[in-house]
Amino acid sequence: AFTRAGVKSLVLNGVAYPRPYPFGAGVGSGGLKILVIVGSEDTMNPPEQAVKTVQGLRENGFEVEVVEHGGAHAFPTDNDDVTKELKRFLSTIYLRILNLDHCENVN
């Protein structure tokens, strides 16, 4: 996670619902943008846990994007689709840091 010039972001890979601490009223996003990477074969933190976590984050005002892949818990470094989405997400954050939101992101 990093913050600069009011831009906050977080990338989560293989997340689990925060038991026994459910999301509560008053939790605010503070403008945090989150990318959640979910492996359909993740047995450490099954996808159902990520779905619950994403739902809780969104219900509390967080801007959440989800990228799914067919692998397990580890980040799939050999998956071009996931890598492309991660690069896109980080590029968006980078442009915001540079205050270039009005510029088009070129891949």
Structure description:
By secondary structure, the chain is of the alpha/beta class. It has 2 helices and 4 strands, in the order βββαβα. Strands 1-2-3-4 form a 4-stranded mixed beta sheet, with helices on both faces. The two termini are 23 Å apart. The mean pLDDT is 80.
Mean pLDDT: 80
Q: What percent of residues are in strands?
A: 15-25%
Strand order of the largest sheet: 1-2-3-4
Uncertain spans, ≥5 residues at pLDDT below 50?
A: none
Q: Approximately how much helix is present in the residues?
A: 25-40%
Assembly state (oligomeric): single chain
Distance between the termini: 23 Å
- The value of Rg in angstroms is 15 Å
- Our count of helices gives 2
Question: What coarse outline follows from CA principal-axis ratios?
Answer: flat
Query: By helix and strand content, what is the structural category?
Result: alpha/beta
Order of helices and strands: EEEHEH
Kindly state the number of beta strands.
4
| Largest sheet data | 4 strands, mixed
Task: Write a concise keyword list for the protein shown above.
107 residues, alpha/beta, 4-stranded mixed β-sheet, 2 helices, 4 strands, 29% helix, flat
Topology (elements, then pairings):
Layout: E1 2-4, E2 7-13, E3 32-39, H1 47-59, E4 63-69, H2 80-97
Parallel strand pairs: 2-3, 3-4
Antiparallel strand pairs: 1-2
Short description:
The protein has 107 residues and is of the alpha/beta class. 29% of the residues lie in helices and 23% in strands. The protein contains two helices and four strands, in the order E-E-E-H-E-H.
